[in-house]
Amino acid sequence: MDHILQTENLSKSYGKFKALNNLTINVPKGAIYGMVGRNGAGKTTLIRIITGLNYPTSGSYSVFGVKDNDKNLLEVRRKIGAVVETPSLHPEMTAKDNLIQQTKALGISDEKLDDILKLVGLANTGKKKAKNFSLGMRQRLGIAFSLVGDPEFLVLDEPINGLDPQGIMEVREMILKLNREKGITILISSHILDELSRLATHYGFIEQGHVIKEMSAEELEKVSRRSVHLNVNDTKLLAEVLDGMGAEYRVYSPNEADIFTPIQVTPLVLALNEKNCFVNSMSEHHESLENYFMGLVGGARNV
Ligand code: ATP
Fold this sequence. Notes:
By secondary structure, this protein is an alpha/beta fold. Helices cover about 35% and strands about 30% of the residues. Helix 5 (about 135-145) packs parallel to helix 6 (about 165-180). It starts with a strand and ends in a 7-residue tail after the last helix. Adenosine-5'-triphosphate (ATP) binds near residues 37, 39 and 45. Adenosine-5'-triphosphate binds next to helix 1.
Protein backbone atom coordinates (compact mmCIF):
# COMPACT_ATOMS: atom_id res chain seq x y z
CA MET A 1 0.00 0.00 0.00
CA ASP A 2 1.60 3.26 -1.19
CA HIS A 3 -1.16 5.54 0.01
CA ILE A 4 -2.64 5.87 3.46
CA LEU A 5 -5.61 7.85 2.20
CA GLN A 6 -7.15 8.14 -1.24
CA THR A 7 -10.40 9.78 -2.17
CA GLU A 8 -12.12 9.49 -5.52
CA ASN A 9 -14.58 12.12 -6.68
CA LEU A 10 -15.76 12.62 -3.14
CA SER A 11 -18.75 14.97 -2.88
CA LYS A 12 -20.76 16.29 0.03
CA SER A 13 -23.87 18.37 -0.54
CA TYR A 14 -25.89 20.36 1.94
CA GLY A 15 -29.08 21.01 -0.03
CA LYS A 16 -27.90 22.54 -3.29
CA PHE A 17 -24.56 23.60 -1.83
CA LYS A 18 -21.59 21.38 -2.54
CA ALA A 19 -19.10 21.53 0.33
CA LEU A 20 -17.04 18.87 -1.48
CA ASN A 21 -17.21 18.66 -5.24
CA ASN A 22 -15.57 15.58 -6.82
CA LEU A 23 -12.58 15.85 -4.55
CA THR A 24 -9.72 13.47 -5.27
CA ILE A 25 -6.62 13.37 -3.09
CA ASN A 26 -3.82 10.90 -2.50
CA VAL A 27 -1.88 10.94 0.77
CA PRO A 28 1.30 8.89 0.40
CA LYS A 29 2.50 6.68 3.24
CA GLY A 30 5.05 8.54 5.38
CA ALA A 31 4.05 12.00 4.12
CA ILE A 32 3.25 15.18 5.95
CA TYR A 33 0.43 16.21 3.65
CA GLY A 34 -0.51 19.87 3.83
CA MET A 35 -4.08 20.72 2.88
CA VAL A 36 -4.18 24.29 1.67
CA GLY A 37 -7.47 26.08 1.15
CA ARG A 38 -9.30 29.25 2.00
CA ASN A 39 -12.05 29.48 4.61
CA GLY A 40 -14.92 27.26 3.59
CA ALA A 41 -12.89 25.36 0.95
CA GLY A 42 -14.04 22.06 2.46
CA LYS A 43 -11.03 20.95 4.51
CA THR A 44 -12.90 20.19 7.72
CA THR A 45 -15.71 18.49 5.79
CA LEU A 46 -13.18 16.14 4.21
CA ILE A 47 -11.51 15.44 7.56
CA ARG A 48 -14.86 14.73 9.21
CA ILE A 49 -15.76 12.25 6.49
CA ILE A 50 -12.53 10.29 6.55
CA THR A 51 -12.57 10.10 10.35
CA GLY A 52 -16.13 8.78 10.31
CA LEU A 53 -17.83 11.87 11.74
CA ASN A 54 -19.79 12.45 8.53
CA TYR A 55 -20.72 10.68 5.30
CA PRO A 56 -20.14 11.61 1.65
CA THR A 57 -23.09 12.22 -0.69
CA SER A 58 -21.23 10.46 -3.50
CA GLY A 59 -17.76 9.27 -4.44
CA SER A 60 -15.57 6.99 -2.38
CA TYR A 61 -12.44 6.89 -0.27
CA SER A 62 -10.08 4.35 1.18
CA VAL A 63 -7.87 4.42 4.27
CA PHE A 64 -4.98 1.99 4.59
CA GLY A 65 -6.19 0.53 1.30
CA VAL A 66 -9.61 -0.34 2.75
CA LYS A 67 -12.61 1.10 0.88
CA ASP A 68 -15.30 3.06 2.70
CA ASN A 69 -17.91 0.39 1.89
CA ASP A 70 -15.73 -2.41 3.30
CA LYS A 71 -16.79 -3.97 6.58
CA ASN A 72 -13.18 -3.71 7.79
CA LEU A 73 -13.25 0.09 7.65
CA LEU A 74 -14.13 0.42 11.35
CA GLU A 75 -11.20 -1.78 12.26
CA VAL A 76 -8.63 0.18 10.21
CA ARG A 77 -10.02 3.49 11.46
CA ARG A 78 -8.52 2.55 14.83
CA LYS A 79 -5.15 3.30 13.26
CA ILE A 80 -6.19 6.92 12.71
CA GLY A 81 -5.61 9.54 15.37
CA ALA A 82 -7.43 12.81 14.83
CA VAL A 83 -7.72 16.25 16.34
CA VAL A 84 -10.71 17.70 14.55
CA GLU A 85 -12.38 19.94 17.05
CA THR A 86 -10.85 21.43 20.20
CA PRO A 87 -10.43 18.34 22.38
CA SER A 88 -12.45 18.28 25.57
CA LEU A 89 -9.83 18.18 28.29
CA HIS A 90 -10.52 17.76 31.99
CA PRO A 91 -9.37 21.15 33.30
CA GLU A 92 -8.87 19.99 36.89
CA MET A 93 -6.61 17.10 35.91
CA THR A 94 -2.92 16.87 35.10
CA ALA A 95 -1.75 15.99 31.60
CA LYS A 96 -1.14 12.39 32.59
CA ASP A 97 -4.48 11.97 34.38
CA ASN A 98 -6.19 13.37 31.30
CA LEU A 99 -4.51 10.71 29.20
CA ILE A 100 -5.36 8.00 31.73
CA GLN A 101 -9.04 8.96 31.31
CA GLN A 102 -8.62 8.60 27.58
CA THR A 103 -7.09 5.11 27.85
CA LYS A 104 -9.95 4.10 30.13
CA ALA A 105 -12.49 5.44 27.62
CA LEU A 106 -10.82 3.45 24.85
CA GLY A 107 -10.28 0.41 27.05
CA ILE A 108 -6.57 0.22 26.32
CA SER A 109 -3.40 -0.01 28.38
CA ASP A 110 -1.81 3.11 29.88
CA GLU A 111 1.76 1.85 29.81
CA LYS A 112 2.86 4.13 26.95
CA LEU A 113 1.59 7.36 28.45
CA ASP A 114 4.97 8.57 29.74
CA ASP A 115 6.43 8.08 26.25
CA ILE A 116 3.56 10.02 24.72
CA LEU A 117 3.96 12.87 27.21
CA LYS A 118 7.65 13.02 26.34
CA LEU A 119 6.90 12.99 22.64
CA VAL A 120 4.56 15.98 22.90
CA GLY A 121 6.86 17.85 25.28
CA LEU A 122 4.59 17.62 28.34
CA ALA A 123 6.66 15.17 30.41
CA ASN A 124 7.69 17.83 32.91
CA THR A 125 4.31 19.31 33.69
CA GLY A 126 3.98 17.23 36.89
CA LYS A 127 1.05 18.27 39.03
CA LYS A 128 0.12 21.26 36.88
CA LYS A 129 -3.56 21.14 36.00
CA ALA A 130 -4.70 21.39 32.37
CA LYS A 131 -6.63 24.58 33.16
CA ASN A 132 -3.31 26.30 33.84
CA PHE A 133 -1.74 25.20 30.54
CA SER A 134 -0.93 27.65 27.76
CA LEU A 135 -2.91 27.29 24.53
CA GLY A 136 0.10 25.58 22.94
CA MET A 137 0.33 23.07 25.80
CA ARG A 138 -3.40 22.37 25.52
CA GLN A 139 -3.03 21.86 21.80
CA ARG A 140 -0.19 19.40 22.39
CA LEU A 141 -2.24 17.60 25.03
CA GLY A 142 -5.02 17.33 22.47
CA ILE A 143 -2.57 15.74 20.05
CA ALA A 144 -1.39 13.44 22.89
CA PHE A 145 -5.03 12.28 23.19
CA SER A 146 -4.98 11.25 19.56
CA LEU A 147 -1.69 9.36 20.08
CA VAL A 148 -3.05 7.17 22.85
CA GLY A 149 -4.38 4.63 20.34
CA ASP A 150 -0.90 4.38 18.75
CA PRO A 151 -2.02 5.73 15.35
CA GLU A 152 -0.20 5.22 12.07
CA PHE A 153 -2.09 8.11 10.50
CA LEU A 154 -2.62 11.41 12.27
CA VAL A 155 -5.17 13.95 11.06
CA LEU A 156 -4.81 17.48 12.39
CA ASP A 157 -7.32 20.21 11.55
CA GLU A 158 -5.71 23.64 11.99
CA PRO A 159 -3.40 22.51 14.83
CA ILE A 160 -1.61 25.85 15.15
CA ASN A 161 -4.58 28.17 14.96
CA GLY A 162 -4.40 30.84 17.64
CA LEU A 163 -0.95 29.86 18.90
CA ASP A 164 1.82 32.36 19.58
CA PRO A 165 5.18 31.96 17.78
CA GLN A 166 6.61 29.86 20.64
CA GLY A 167 3.55 27.58 20.63
CA ILE A 168 3.72 27.26 16.84
CA MET A 169 7.37 26.26 17.04
CA GLU A 170 6.67 23.62 19.71
CA VAL A 171 3.81 22.07 17.75
CA ARG A 172 5.92 22.13 14.58
CA GLU A 173 8.83 20.34 16.27
CA MET A 174 6.42 17.78 17.64
CA ILE A 175 4.79 17.10 14.27
CA LEU A 176 8.21 16.62 12.65
CA LYS A 177 9.24 14.28 15.46
CA LEU A 178 6.08 12.17 15.11
CA ASN A 179 6.66 11.88 11.40
CA ARG A 180 10.40 11.27 11.41
CA GLU A 181 10.85 9.21 14.55
CA LYS A 182 7.58 7.31 14.71
CA GLY A 183 6.97 7.16 10.97
CA ILE A 184 3.42 8.49 11.37
CA THR A 185 1.77 9.79 8.19
CA ILE A 186 0.22 13.17 8.92
CA LEU A 187 -2.57 15.07 7.18
CA ILE A 188 -2.63 18.65 8.33
CA SER A 189 -4.84 21.55 7.32
CA SER A 190 -3.68 25.02 8.05
CA HIS A 191 -4.28 28.62 7.08
CA ILE A 192 -0.78 29.51 8.11
CA LEU A 193 0.83 28.69 4.82
CA ASP A 194 4.29 29.87 5.76
CA GLU A 195 4.20 27.42 8.65
CA LEU A 196 2.88 24.62 6.48
CA SER A 197 5.77 25.12 4.07
CA ARG A 198 8.21 24.29 6.89
CA LEU A 199 6.53 20.94 7.44
CA ALA A 200 4.83 19.53 4.40
CA THR A 201 6.34 16.95 2.09
CA HIS A 202 3.21 17.02 -0.09
CA TYR A 203 0.44 19.51 -0.77
CA GLY A 204 -3.18 19.42 -1.84
CA PHE A 205 -4.56 22.79 -2.89
CA ILE A 206 -8.32 22.88 -2.35
CA GLU A 207 -10.77 25.43 -3.69
CA GLN A 208 -14.58 25.22 -3.47
CA GLY A 209 -14.54 21.58 -2.47
CA HIS A 210 -12.26 20.52 -5.30
CA VAL A 211 -8.54 19.72 -5.44
CA ILE A 212 -7.06 22.08 -7.98
CA LYS A 213 -3.51 20.83 -7.61
CA GLU A 214 -1.65 18.10 -5.80
CA MET A 215 2.12 18.07 -5.68
CA SER A 216 5.16 17.14 -3.65
CA ALA A 217 7.24 19.76 -1.86
CA GLU A 218 10.03 19.01 -4.35
CA GLU A 219 7.72 19.72 -7.28
CA LEU A 220 6.58 22.93 -5.63
CA GLU A 221 10.17 23.96 -5.16
CA LYS A 222 10.82 23.46 -8.87
CA VAL A 223 7.84 25.46 -10.09
CA SER A 224 7.89 28.25 -7.53
CA ARG A 225 9.69 31.25 -8.89
CA ARG A 226 13.05 32.31 -7.58
CA SER A 227 13.89 35.95 -7.15
CA VAL A 228 17.06 37.80 -6.33
CA HIS A 229 16.65 40.57 -3.80
CA LEU A 230 19.04 43.48 -4.25
CA ASN A 231 19.95 46.42 -2.06
CA VAL A 232 21.66 49.07 -4.18
CA ASN A 233 22.60 52.75 -3.82
CA ASP A 234 20.04 53.78 -6.48
CA THR A 235 17.26 51.57 -7.89
CA LYS A 236 16.68 54.09 -10.72
CA LEU A 237 20.11 53.20 -12.11
CA LEU A 238 19.41 49.50 -11.47
CA ALA A 239 16.14 49.76 -13.40
CA GLU A 240 17.94 51.28 -16.41
CA VAL A 241 20.36 48.35 -16.52
CA LEU A 242 17.62 45.74 -16.04
CA ASP A 243 15.45 47.38 -18.73
CA GLY A 244 18.44 47.10 -21.08
CA MET A 245 18.64 43.39 -20.28
CA GLY A 246 14.89 42.85 -20.71
CA ALA A 247 14.69 41.47 -17.16
CA GLU A 248 11.50 41.25 -15.08
CA TYR A 249 11.86 43.09 -11.79
CA ARG A 250 10.04 45.04 -9.12
CA VAL A 251 11.33 48.11 -7.30
CA TYR A 252 10.23 48.56 -3.67
CA SER A 253 12.16 51.66 -2.62
CA PRO A 254 15.10 53.84 -3.75
CA ASN A 255 17.36 51.01 -2.56
CA GLU A 256 15.41 47.72 -2.70
CA ALA A 257 14.33 45.63 -5.67
CA ASP A 258 13.60 42.04 -6.69
CA ILE A 259 14.68 40.50 -10.00
CA PHE A 260 12.59 37.58 -11.27
CA THR A 261 14.46 36.70 -14.47
CA PRO A 262 17.37 34.30 -13.96
CA ILE A 263 20.49 36.46 -14.22
CA GLN A 264 24.21 35.95 -14.17
CA VAL A 265 25.56 37.90 -11.26
CA THR A 266 28.99 38.97 -12.55
CA PRO A 267 27.84 40.62 -15.82
CA LEU A 268 25.03 42.34 -13.91
CA VAL A 269 27.35 43.76 -11.26
CA LEU A 270 29.84 44.93 -13.94
CA ALA A 271 27.04 46.62 -15.90
CA LEU A 272 25.79 48.28 -12.71
CA ASN A 273 29.27 49.48 -11.79
CA GLU A 274 29.59 51.18 -15.15
CA LYS A 275 26.48 53.20 -14.31
CA ASN A 276 27.77 53.97 -10.79
CA CYS A 277 25.14 51.70 -9.28
CA PHE A 278 26.67 49.76 -6.38
CA VAL A 279 25.29 46.60 -4.80
CA ASN A 280 25.17 46.62 -0.98
CA SER A 281 23.65 43.16 -0.65
CA MET A 282 22.11 40.41 -2.75
CA SER A 283 20.12 37.33 -1.67
CA GLU A 284 18.11 34.61 -3.37
CA HIS A 285 14.50 33.92 -2.43
CA HIS A 286 11.78 31.46 -3.33
CA GLU A 287 8.23 32.47 -4.08
CA SER A 288 6.24 31.85 -0.93
CA LEU A 289 3.66 29.08 -0.66
CA GLU A 290 1.05 31.79 -0.18
CA ASN A 291 1.93 33.48 -3.49
CA TYR A 292 1.86 30.15 -5.27
CA PHE A 293 -1.55 29.36 -3.82
CA MET A 294 -2.94 32.78 -4.71
CA GLY A 295 -1.67 32.26 -8.27
CA LEU A 296 -3.46 28.91 -8.44
CA VAL A 297 -6.81 30.18 -7.18
CA GLY A 298 -6.71 33.26 -9.39
CA GLY A 299 -5.93 35.83 -6.71
CA ALA A 300 -3.52 38.66 -7.38
CA ARG A 301 0.02 37.58 -7.76
CA ASN A 302 2.62 39.89 -6.32
CA VAL A 303 4.15 40.92 -9.57
P1 ATP B 1 -12.36 26.70 7.57
O1 ATP B 1 -10.93 26.80 7.27
O2 ATP B 1 -13.07 28.01 7.66
O3 ATP B 1 -12.69 25.77 8.69
P2 ATP B 1 -12.95 24.61 5.73
O4 ATP B 1 -12.14 24.54 4.48
O5 ATP B 1 -12.61 23.66 6.81
O6 ATP B 1 -12.98 26.08 6.24
P3 ATP B 1 -15.56 23.46 5.87
O7 ATP B 1 -15.73 23.67 7.33
O8 ATP B 1 -15.30 22.10 5.39
O9 ATP B 1 -14.45 24.42 5.27
O10 ATP B 1 -16.86 24.02 5.15
C1 ATP B 1 -17.05 23.95 3.74
C2 ATP B 1 -18.36 24.62 3.40
O11 ATP B 1 -19.44 23.77 3.80
C3 ATP B 1 -18.57 25.94 4.10
O12 ATP B 1 -19.16 26.85 3.19
C4 ATP B 1 -19.51 25.59 5.23
O13 ATP B 1 -20.33 26.71 5.56
C5 ATP B 1 -20.34 24.47 4.62
N1 ATP B 1 -20.84 23.55 5.65
C6 ATP B 1 -20.10 22.80 6.49
N2 ATP B 1 -20.89 22.05 7.30
C7 ATP B 1 -22.18 22.35 6.95
C8 ATP B 1 -23.46 21.90 7.41
N3 ATP B 1 -23.59 21.01 8.38
N4 ATP B 1 -24.55 22.42 6.80
C9 ATP B 1 -24.44 23.33 5.81
N5 ATP B 1 -23.25 23.79 5.32
C10 ATP B 1 -22.14 23.31 5.89
